[in-house]
Design brief:
376 residues, alpha+beta, Glycosyltransferase, 12 helices, 13 strands, 48% helix, Non-reducing end beta-L-arabinofuranosidase-like GH127 catalytic domain-containing protein
Amino acid sequence: MADDMTFAAAEWLLNSGIQNPPGTHEMHGADVGGSFNAWFNPQTHTHSYIYTEISGYALTTLLYLYRRYGDARFKRHATLVGEWLHNIQLPTGALPTAFYIEATPFQKSSDLHAFDVGMVLNGLVCLHRETLEERYLQSAIRAADWIAGIQRGDGSVPAMTDAVTGATKDHEGTWSTQPGPYHGKLAIGLLNLFDLTRDPRYADAARALCNYTLTRQKKNGQFLTYGNLDGTNFHPHAYACEGLYAAGCYLNELRYLDAARRGTEWALSLCKDGIIPRHIHDERINYHERADIQMQISRLATLFHIQDDNATQLFQRLPEYRYRHDQDTQGGGFIFGKSSAGELLPHVNAWVTMFSLQAISLGADPDAQFDPFYLI
């Protein structure tokens, strides 16, 4: 059953249209073929926008699938993503955040996001490992150098910088517009690159990010995801745990592993009827769930071999987020979940599907060997 869901989700990534085929259309003078859209709206039958961060996740996902199944299609589609990312990379090493085919109410700014560049970095290193193509390694090095170049003395990085001037554009609007513990996930790509190049700058930058991430954790395991609020969004909370888990495994750093485990256990302690909260602020808990959070915490529970009732309930609920119209080309994908207000958002979502296939496949075989550099 788990393998069936994993493979159906993988087929959705290949065949649903969520990945733009080569030569589809041009934007800003470049072919967008190979890139990934953020989601598909089955009500309007349209895709949202082309998302660089998610295209980075797609690289890692497709290569994870290639290693798991040995199906050459996954490697071929990963190469398409890698070529697109290589071609849109800026001279600084950063990458544009998103490209819009049509107007969307979910528009992101044109500022450069450090987190997005970090997710692309890891995908490019994984692609170089599989293809041995030098240009992917050089793109990864440029991305890592950009991240290391904007890193501050306390280990943090700006969330956003101006694409023209390089000036910091951070503000307190939400967790993703300010430095935070979620940037700990950038350590995965930096350490993956260090493992290949042995350049100590990348290991140093990764350690500094992880050490900064530790400063944002409370004793109970909770990561504070806002600089201006005593609160936590569980999506970036999980990112912090993921980065510390991968770094802890690679560096054999028990502090990082302990912090990631405590963060996972804290999230699981708030699980209710198999649902991890979306947000907590002033002890007010919002249970209008995002599916990506459910997948992230379940995957972490598997990696830490946590098998309590909450972890079991959570894992058993994951299939409920599948898009149900199996006769449709979108069958196999997973939906986003709900808005903060509780409205169902039936978008068939790219990153949720990527997280889902890994969470379900790992949960079905928790003793399988896992390379943390392929943590999506």
